[in-house]
Design a protein that fits this description.
Length: 126
């Protein structure tokens, strides 16, 4: 990964590491912490809805989650890039149709997230 340069108060250039913010959710998934990618409200709703359906259209998800086209598109893209959901595009007559379904790794991540939340709840009840 490239490093950017930062000019110090003395005028000399110092290397400043560039942090890959997109890698942060992957680190959280790997070290047992709460999966921040799923933890966000809209993405949790999206994967939860897909966990209980074979597939859902963009329109169905938008209505269920009550979010804008742009928000749904952005959250779905993040989940798709992580491999949690799969997207297929086609046509229903002349109308474009986008379908989403939960991938096996998405189901595994959701189950792990739920188990983590259940453990937190159990610990709080003690």
């Amino acid at each position: 990964m490239a490093a950017s340069r930062k000019i110090s108060s003395t005028g000399s250039a110092q290397a400043e590491p560039v942090v890959n913010k997109a890698a942060a959710p992957a680190r959280a998934r790997n070290n047992g912490d709460l999966d921040q990618l799923i933890h966000e409200r809209s993405r949790l709703g999206l994967v939860s809805a897909l966990a209980s359906h074979k597939s859902m259209s963009f329109t169905e998800l938008k209505a269920l989650l009550q979010i804008s086209d742009g928000n749904l598109s952005t959250h779905a893209r993040k989940l798709e890039e992580a491999g949690y959901i799969e997207c297929s595009k086609g046509f229903d007559g002349r109308m474009p149709r986008t379908e989403y379904r939960l991938s096996p790794s998405g189901r595994k991540a959701l189950n792990k997230y739920i188990a983590h939340m259940e453990a937190l709840i159990a610990a709080m009840k003690k």
